UniProtKB/TrEMBL annotation:
This protein's UniProt keywords: FAD, Flavoprotein, Oxidoreductase, Signal
Transmembrane segments: none
Organism: Hydnum rufescens UP504
Record-level Gene Ontology MF annotations: FAD binding; oxidoreductase activity
Domain FAD-binding PCMH-type: 65-235
Signal peptide boundaries: 1-16
InterPro entries, alphabetized: BBE (IPR012951), FAD-bd_PCMH (IPR016166), FAD-bd_PCMH-like_sf (IPR036318), FAD-bd_PCMH_sub2 (IPR016169), FAD-linked_Oxidoreductase (IPR050416), Oxid_FAD_bind_N (IPR006094)
The protein's name: FAD-binding PCMH-type domain-containing protein
Listed PANTHER family: BINDING OXIDOREDUCTASE, PUTATIVE (AFU_ORTHOLOGUE AFUA_1G17690)-RELATED (PTHR42973), FAD-BINDING PCMH-TYPE DOMAIN-CONTAINING PROTEIN (PTHR42973:SF13)
Pfam families referenced in this protein's UniProt entry, alphabetically: BBE, FAD_binding_4
Family, as annotated: Belongs to the oxygen-dependent FAD-linked oxidoreductase family.
Length: 489
């Protein structure tokens, strides 16, 4: 006991976060850890602070999402996930479920209690006869793509390295092939789910339409998903172009033109604008084409502008993912947050306001050298909504939504609250500009996977919220999932 307490007492120093649990609470969480250790099979393992795997298990893309947990557990089988959840429910112990750890809201996949890291749920199996793949919920998309590449197929997964299968697929899932195939949630044909009660079940649209709806955007409200079966598709190619500051006005025109005039669902771009205080801002266009060769004519307008750098080419999908991911790897371990605005279209004025907000806060007093403000502009095809195969989804996306991903990173914990307030101000200013041009945004869902933790649930789930609330009551009557963080119905 003494040595355990010593280790716990040292944790705040190791993780840079204050832990204010009293001894009784610590002892309670610790005994839950021991109870779990006692029942799980050899496929699974519990780690305590000080064990090497504990650090990777509890860590996140931004360190501000990490909390010191009593222990981490890596379940290797669905049966062990069930046993763990039963013990957690019986003892009412706070817990977390982590897949790729890209949540930027603190507590969404971190806890002072039992941290469940899904990394051992890592199988990828391609089923050629049905054009589907079984994908473990603890994988990151890079590994999924690498395993599917030899078969020449891919799935609608994350666009950037490191994003987890679990959180992405339960929240929504905007992919490189979303224009043609819809979101991740539109392409899952089966879920293996451990219900909050610990019961193991299989969910398909026909076997359980209620849970099938709820899991398509309802994140971690309905239990722990251990694997997904996805539809698979041929993979594509693309690359990145970056532009010097002097050419930004031309690039904004080209983005507006692409957003308004592109009709080819195989083509997709993401505009990223990154402004680190004290350095020149950078505008890049990430391009993707879902086909065997790159028809450059689609990107003509961009290619008529001088590029600071460019590497558009026919390439393996995994290579494309690493090329576009470079700015998003957070090598300096900035703290950070994400937020979002849902738009229905782009004009040069709206894009200028997006850049203006980025510049304004990057140059404002609260941001220091070593910080970073970035925004991803995602002009999905306006007609793409008709190709979304399933519209009975918890995340309401049957109306056209172009989500904006604001990411702000900073080194100092003292910046946390002002940065998040400023992000909300920036989002409000962008929204006001778009509404001033006539966009109807008040009923348009905000994307839960990008939204700050205090975003009202009505803004995330709109008309679906009452139904989700009643399903949550039905499938989690004892509110076990409320022991974990996240948006709660
Ligand atoms: C650099 C970066 C790039 C991104 N790119 C994209 C993109 O291209 N498209 C897009 O749509 N989004 C993107 N996102 C947003 C991303 O989808 C969300 O951050 C998502 O929640 C991350 O999932 P994760 O598994 O990595 O995170 P985690 O932090 O592990 O999990 C996120 C949430 O999901 C829950 N969860 C995870 N797995 C399970 C499970 N198996 N069962 C139950 N609950 C679970 C967790 O408890 C947590 O609440 C990006 C984010 C970042 C930071
Ligand atoms: C570390 O965690 C990540 C998920 O956050 C996982 O993909 C990876 O396999 C883990 N690495 C090790 C060595 O366990
Ligand atoms: C769309 O294309 C038409 C025809 O080329 C052009 O006149 C128009 O300006 C384009 N729209 C935008 C927003 O650029
Ligand atoms: C930030 O760093 C850059 C380059 O190192 C320097 O030119 C600039 O003055 C710094 N800005 C502030 C506000 O310290
Ligand atoms: C840029 O943003 C700031 C802060 O919101 C605002 O005061 C200013 O008017 C904006 N500038 C333009 C040109 O919109
Ligand atoms: C789903 O799509 C069908 C066909 O487009 C439409 O009739 C139906 O109203 C949609 N359902 C919802 C909930 O949007």
């Amino acid at each position: 006991m003494l040595s355990y307490c010593t280790v716990v007492a040292l944790l705040p120093l190791v993780l840079g976060r204050s832990v204010s649990l009293n001894l009784e609470t610590r002892a309670k969480y610790h005994s839950t850890c021991l109870a779990i250790q006692h029942v799980i099979s050899h496929a699974s393992q519990v780690f305590h602070p000080g064990n090497v795997p504990y650090v990777n298990d509890t860590s996140h893309w931004v360190p501000s999402s990490t909390q010191a947990s009593a222990c981490s557990v890596e379940p290797g089988t669905v049966e062990d996930v069930s046993k763990i959840l039963k013990i957690i429910g019986r003892t009412s112990t706070p817990f977390a479920v982590k897949s790729g750890g890209h949540a930027t809201n603190q507590g969404f996949s971190s806890t002072p209690g039992v941290h469940i890291a899904l990394s051992r749920l890592n199988t990828v199996a391609y089923h050629q006869d049905s054009n589907t793949a079984t994908i473990g919920a603890g994988l990151t998309w890079d590994r999924v793509y690498a395993e599917l590449e030899p078969y020449g197929v891919t799935v609608p997964g994350g666009r950037i390295s490191g994003v987890g299968v679990g959180g992405f697929t339960l929240g929504g899932g905007y992919s490189w092939i979303t224009n043609r195939r819809g979101l991740g949630i539109d392409n899952v044909v089966e879920y293996e789910l451990v219900l909050p009660s610990g019961e193991i079940t299989t969910v398909t649209a026909s076997s359980n339409p209620e849970l099938s709806f709820a899991l398509r955007g309802g994140s971690n409200n309905f239990g722990i998903v251990t694997k997904f079966i996805f539809k698979t598709y041929r993979m594509g190619l693309g690359g990145v172009m970056t532009f010097a500051k002097s050419h930004i006005p031309l690039v904004l025109e080209a983005i507006t033109d692409f957003a308004a005039n592109n009709t080819n669902p195989d083509a997709n771009i993401v505009g990223t604008y990154i402004h680190a205080p004290g350095s020149a801002p950078e505008l890049s266009i990430l391009t993707f084409y879902n086909g065997p060769t790159l028809p450059l004519a689609i990107f003509d307008k961009f290619l008529s502008i001088p590029r600071a750098s460019e590497d558009l080419r026919t390439r393996p999908f995994t290579d494309l993912i690493s090329a576009v991911s470079a700015p998003y790897l957070n090598p300096t371990h900035l703290r950070g947050a994400q937020h979002t605005v849902s738009l229905t279209g782009y004009t040069v004025d709206i894009l200028s306001q997006i850049l203006n907000q980025t510049d304004f806060y990057a140059e404002s007093g609260s941001f220091a050298n070593g910080s970073l403000i970035s925004v991803a502009i995602e002009p999905f095809l306006a007609s793409g909504v008709s190709s979304f195969s399933a519209n009975d989804t918890a995340y309401p996306h049957n109306r056209y939504i172009s989500p904006l991903a604001l990411f702000w990173g900073w080194p100092d914990e003292r910046t946390d609250s002002t940065a998040m307030q400023d992000m909300e101000r920036a989002a409000a200013a962008i929204t006001a500009t778009a509404e001033g041009e006539g966009q109807q945004l008040t009923d348009l869902a905000l994307y839960n996977n990008y939204a700050l933790a205090d975003t009202p649930l009505e803004r995330l789930y709109t008309v679906n919220l009452p139904r989700l609330r009643s399903l949550k009551k039905k499938y989690d009557p004892r509110n076990i999932m409320n022991l974990a963080g996240g948006f709660r119905f």
